[in-house]
Design goal:
The chain has 300 residues and is of the alpha/beta class. It has one domain: Vaccinia Virus protein VP39 (Rossmann fold). Helices cover 42% and strands 15% of the residues. It contains 11 helices and 7 strands. Helix 5 links the parallel strand 4 and strand 5. The chain is globular, with a radius of gyration of 19 Å. The chain starts with 19 loop residues before the first helix and ends in a 6-residue tail after the last strand.
């Protein structure tokens, strides 16, 4: 996830100084600055260990081989790109955040100086990418796209990869009212108010994508319409709730500094978002899923 409560203007390199949002997120993220749902392979893992386990889980589903090119759409502060490079993969990260771009660029420059494999980081959206990639990962960025772009994104992923291409998509999802009723899950007026708050402040005015369905369309339908076959869907909801708990606890511990950086309104909004999403995940209102989308040449 890369949403901000407030926006900030993209600046030229000449007037660049460290973005206060970078420090704000560093107050509650793990040392890799991975801003997405983690995966607890072992209950006693640290948040950092769980984030690396999530990255390894996602990459393991991509059938990566040395020499391949991996494109990370919405790469954040670069943890997936760095992990892939350590495994001998040529990795390209895309971000629309200048501060994230500068942060990852400096990490890659340091790797180059030390003689380590060095990938690439580009300051652009996926719509502007016209290169080639053997595999694509998009981890907790899709939910920030506008809904009218969902189909275009899957078409882009299909056209960018070879005949045996794989797209690994991890995203937060919501459920339709019919699904909730069928499963005995109720939404109160307070719940609806929180979901509106989430849409207006975190997800750019958009509702969360649905996992399945045709009317309205869910993730699986968009992927299949582009030509992909969904070979695996893994639910990570309990791991998302635990991730949010860790983030909320850390942000609360750094309350004074967080308010100093962004003000009390942003701090309060993020605490509401983190604790509220954890509650709604545990109650079955929202979830996190990994979708393995495979092109025909990669099927058995």
């Amino acid at each position: 996830m890369t949403g901000h409560i407030t926006s900030h203007t993209v600046r030229s390199d000449d007037d660049y100084s460290e973005d206060p949002w970078d420090e704000f997120f560093s107050l509650f993220l793990d040392p890799t600055r991975t801003y997405s749902c983690a995966f607890w392979a072992h209950p006693d893992d640290t948040l950092e260990e769980a984030q690396l386990a999530k990255i390894d889980l996602a990459l393991s589903k991509c059938d990566l081989r040395p020499g391949m090119t991996l494109l990370d759409v919405g790469c954040g502060w670069g943890s997936v790109v760095l992990r892939a490079m350590d495994a001998g993969i040529d990795a390209i990260g895309l971000t629309v955040s200048r501060s994230q771009y500068r942060y990852v660029r400096d990490l890659l420059a340091d790797r180059l100086i030390r003689g380590q494999p060095c990938g690439r980081i580009w300051l652009q959206g996926w719509e502007e990418f016209h290169g080639h990639a053997d595999r694509i990962v998009c981890i907790d960025a899709f939910e920030h796209f506008h809904e009218e772009r969902y189909g275009d994104f899957f078409d882009f992923a299909y056209q960018t990869t070879p005949d045996d291409g794989v797209l690994l998509l991890q995203t937060i999802v919501g459920y339709s009212p019919d699904h909730l009723r069928t499963n005995g899950v109720q939404l109160t007026s307070v719940d609806n108010a929180f979901m509106r708050f989430l849409s207006e402040t975190i997800f750019a005015g958009e509702r969360l994508p649905l996992p399945t369905g045709r009317d309205p369309k869910g993730v699986t339908a968009y992927a299949e319409d582009a030509g992909f076959t969904i070979t695996q869907v893994q639910t990570l909801g309990p791991h998302y709730a635990t991730t949010l708990d860790h983030w909320a606890d850390a942000l609360h511990k750094h309350r004074d500094r967080a308010i100093e950086i962004t003000g009390p309104g942003v701090y309060d909004a993020y605490i509401r978002y983190l604790t509220g999403c954890a509650d709604h995940t545990r109650r079955g209102h929202i979830d996190v899923m990994q979708f393995t989308c495979t092109k025909p040449g990669a099927l058995p």
